[in-house]
Amino acid sequence: MQRSTTSTFALTFAPAILFAVCGTNHAQAQVHPFEAPPSFTEARPPAGNLFVVREATQQTCQPQGSITRNGSIVSVKLNFVRSDFNINNPDPTDPYQGEDPVTLRSYGGCKSGPTIEVNPGNTLRVELVNELDANDPSCYKNPPSGLSMPPGVGCFNTINLHTHGLHVSPAGNSDNVLLNIAPQTRFPYEINIPADHPAGTFWYHAHRHGSTAVQVSSGASGMLIIRGNRPYTPPTPENPHPIADIDTILHDADGGPMREQLFHFEQIAYACFKNDPSLDGGPWQEIYTTKGLFDIAGLNATTPPPAVFAPWVCPKPTPDNFVSRGVIENFTLQLDSPTIWDSNGRFTSVNGIVEPTMTIAAGEIQRWRFLHAGIHDTINLQIVRASPVAGAANLIATSALSGNRQQQKADLAKFCPATPQTLIPQFEIAADGLTLSKIHTLSGVSMTSSNGSNYLQPGYRSDVLVVFPEDGNYCVLDQAAPPQERANNGNNGGQGPSIPQLLAYIHVEGGHAVTTDLQTYVFKALYDRNPNLPDDVRKGLLTGNIAPWAPFTDLGPVTPGSQQQHAHFAINVQGNSVLFQINGKSYDPNVVNVTRQVNTTDDWLLTADGEPHIFHIHVNPFEVMDVTRLAPDGGQESIFDQEGLCRKDVVPDTQGLGNQYCDMYHVFRDTIFVENGYQVHIRTHYDRYIGEYVIHCHILDHEDGGMMMNINIVPDLHAPGGGLGMPAMSH
Ligand SMILES: [Cu+2]
User: What is the model's pTM?
Assistant: First the structure.
């Protein structure tokens, strides 16, 4: 199955150069070719390394660190650094003419962390090297007043590593987010990925409580892909559900591995500060905006409406005017406001690039792996056919799209209109890395219809198959979810304006036009390209049945005697304090909030007050059993009908509050949106691993603020000390 990793690169990416803008017309944005996230250089795919199918793409940033493979041992050196680079800014009024200089913290020193690829059964050894400055004002007992941090937030130079979605031990030096890796120290993680681990799209990110939001929103995350080559084998009485990997049935038209693209979405909220050395109280106090300086007084101002909620800018420094590079150093000003991402003008980037252009051939089916690594705002992903722009091969290289994110809204509606005629379906094969039982066709009939979009909340992953029917240009849009369906909070959902954004631009050229229905085309291709499967299994592909490759189908009943667990998210006000809480408690690292027994199964009820939050649990995925909401009779009613589809009388297309749950009936995930006004019912099995780990809101500034709790999995709930032996060995 191995195939050259470079042969098609030139063909695939070179045409983008043709669109580059000549001259310096500031009304037009530069075209940036799509790049994969950075990766470490490996001399050659080592023997036993599976399915290396992504082409080497041009890589403008070489990450600091290394990867070596020795049998099943994968050794990664990962340097956590604060480094200088540029982020492209399509706003033509940008003083830096499209390349804002930034200084940000990340794994490896690039705009996103290096992609790490492993196989089931690998031991992943990560030597995490914290090169950040030991002199960390955000970690002082009395930080400079300009930083104005809520309790518990700070120590932005202290780090750790979380392998999000992996089913591995949470203890010791494995996926243990309770560790603090101090600046100028290093730490050896050893993560044993079991041989029966599902293949899929996972990720790693910073998770040290108090600095998580600052670091992740700076780009401290990367893709962690598990590739599997376990082929379909028929079930037997001894092995009723054999492990098989979806990777083994995704072929291109020539029988080689299907080409894939990684989309690492980030929402990097960098700002340029007026770093006047004469300022009392530290440097990170005043942000440059289009309407003057934004500071804590402005944030707290109520009347008149703060003009400071204006797009941020990075003026060029002059001898009389101190301007910092773009940084994320002030938690309160940059992250801790429900509308700040709406107003700051920053763009969601793809692998560190804003609005990149990709070129692919018509009729080619690709696997796209989406990762929402932002911390705040919902991405409502749609793919639409762009309206032709006279004489232009690329919308970006014209003045058709102009201005900052807010100003591009009208242009997008005009040039990337989402209508039943223009929407391109996405065929979702995996959610949160886990292969689905059935391919979900996100057919995009309308913006709010139950299967119209691919809602990505912070922390989510989605793997989709895509195909473009004919030559032309296409927009990958964040269609800006209706306020009720957004994580960027406020009463009853979002309170900021809905601002669509172009995420990526797709130029389709060559190949073969598809004249049939795209779903039929994709399902038929899966069928045609897998002639060696047993007939009945192969025929299932014609209807999108991929259950033989799904790692989980049904958790079965809860353990007798288990009690339903509850996670209730709310922001509570107590006196002058705003408290981010689960079940009425802010995070206390010294308290175990929930103790459960290994190898048992519980039901959990997830609810949110006032505004939505995002539930994430480490180590074990969960099964979505039901989603309910208040019925007219005062009880709860399911949004699903008997087939697991959304009930139109409960979730109508036109209103759509619960639309994003419509494809989740009995789906396995590790992260889920908890819409206020809804109840999310999940079931989870504490499989195999004991130890202490966390449950938290994946709006990461909420997590830092206290919306997290500890769960401890013990050998035996009824034994002294939970079965952990000597009392002193328990927590
Ligand atoms: Cu939250």
Answer: 0.93
